[in-house]
């Protein structure tokens, strides 16, 4: 087993509204583009050849990762003219694979942060003789995911993408977005048209009697589909809860990148990352948050579980709680922003303009 496909295209690739020009895989998590963590974890599991299947903004990946040799990888890039869906994207890169028909190929959704034991998934695959094996995890609310019930031997009995009705919610096991496919299964996906692996390929394989094997692994797992999840994931990387060889420096309560300027009495906790050229002023408290490059957190601000975009400014004594401040936005002093509020890139909020608490 030496190769993998990484899916980094489709509609959900941009972290909206924060980074208008940056595709999500390139938004920094724990100081490096998120994709670095997936690449490094795959490499650590023995993967040597990775094909990046993307559908737009491909031009940002190659200048950064090049041929992958810095990571000990051989990286290739394939760009779809129009998004081909997950299955279409996999089929579209088949000609780049080197594996023989019976050899296993790893496939990863590009927006997942996980501690999955990749070798164990491959071993499960080879050991069970399956056509496809899937990493499964358990979640409280499975509606946003693909539901994957299995029998007593772990064999997949159905695949229900984004179940709509209560009757469809037959299990809390979901598709965690990492698969092993036999090469011949990839070649059997129709070419040249959009295909959803979740809605077409998996149900079709099951109907045809193919062997799909599930491996439930309840290690760290997070879909980084929202900015809030992104902040959580970045903090968990810094804290060491989400394992990645690509975290720069040692894991701990905070990660302050070179060139950041943090006041001596500022308090950074909970896996907070402060990017290059960012400033955190006197007495500020930043917990479980990401402060991207060049952002400014003024004295006395209190920031919790929030994302502050590149070059954005958060005024003195302002409180951010579960907030997203877009790149280049300015939140004036003495504001209070809470509960999933998103400040658009380059927007301006005057001092003392937004408060949640009573007027005292
Ligand atoms: N190249 C390419 N082309 N990649 C695509 C395309 C496409 O047209 N469409 C989606 N992708 C990539 C996305 O970039 C992402 O990395 C992955 O495929 C999954 O797509 P999402 O759009 O993020 O799907 P989702 O999160 O709603 O659901 C998927 O992930 C869940 C786990 O997080 C499904 O696989 C679910 O079954 C699964 O539970
Ligand atoms: Mg997703």
TrEMBL record:
Pfam hit, one: GMPPB_C
Gene3D superfamilies: Hexapeptide repeat proteins, Spore Coat Polysaccharide Biosynthesis Protein SpsA, Chain A
Domain Nucleotidyl transferase residues, every copy: 4-236
Ranges where the Mannose-1-phosphate guanyltransferase C-terminal domain occurs: 252-333
Protein family: Belongs to the transferase hexapeptide repeat family.
Protein's name according to its UniProt entry: NDP-sugar synthase
Protein's organism: Streptomyces lycii
């Amino acid at each position: 087993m030496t190769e993998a496909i990484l899916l980094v295209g489709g509609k959900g690739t941009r972290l909206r509204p924060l980074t208008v020009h940056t595709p999500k895989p390139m938004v920094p998590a724990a100081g490096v583009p998120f994709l670095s963590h997936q690449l490094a974890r795959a490499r650590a599991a023995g993967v040597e050849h990775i094909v990046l299947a993307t559908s737009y903004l491909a031009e940002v990946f190659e200048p950064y990762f090049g041929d992958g040799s810095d990571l000990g990888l051989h990286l290739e890039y394939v760009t779809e003219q129009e998004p081909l869906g997950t299955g279409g994207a996999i089929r579209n890169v088949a000609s780049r694979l080197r594996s023989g028909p019976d050899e296993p190929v790893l496939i990863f959704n590009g927006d997942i942060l996980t501690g999955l034991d990749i070798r164990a998934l491959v071993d499960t695959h080879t050991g069970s003789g399956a056509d496809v094996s899937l990493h499964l995890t358990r979640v409280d609310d499975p509606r946003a995911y693909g539901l994957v019930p299995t029998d007593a031997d772990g064999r997949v009995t159905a695949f229900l993408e984004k179940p709509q009705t209560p009757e469809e919610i037959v299990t809390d096991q979901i598709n965690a977005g990492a698969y092993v496919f036999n090469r011949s299964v990839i070649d059997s996906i129709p070419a040249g048209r959009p295909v959803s692996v979740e809605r077409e390929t998996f149900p079709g394989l099951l109907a045809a009697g193919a062997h799909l094997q599930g491996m439930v692994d309840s290690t760290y797992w997070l879909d980084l589909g929202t900015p809030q999840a992104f902040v959580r994931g970045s903090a968990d990387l810094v804290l060491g809860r989400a394992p990645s060889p690509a975290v720069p420096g040692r894991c701990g309560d905070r990660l302050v990148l070179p060139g950041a300027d943090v006041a001596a009495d500022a308090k950074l906790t909970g896996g907070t990352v402060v990017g290059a050229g960012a400033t955190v002023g006197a007495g500020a408290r930043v917990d479980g948050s990401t402060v991207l490059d060049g952002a400014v957190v003024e004295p006395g601000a209190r920031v919790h579980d929030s994302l502050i975009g590149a070059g954005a400014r958060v005024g003195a004594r302002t409180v951010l709680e579960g907030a997203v401040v877009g790149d280049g936005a300015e939140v004036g002093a003495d504001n209070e922003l809470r509960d999933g509020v998103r400040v658009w890139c380059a927007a301006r909020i005057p001092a003392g303009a937004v408060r949640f608490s009573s007027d005292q």
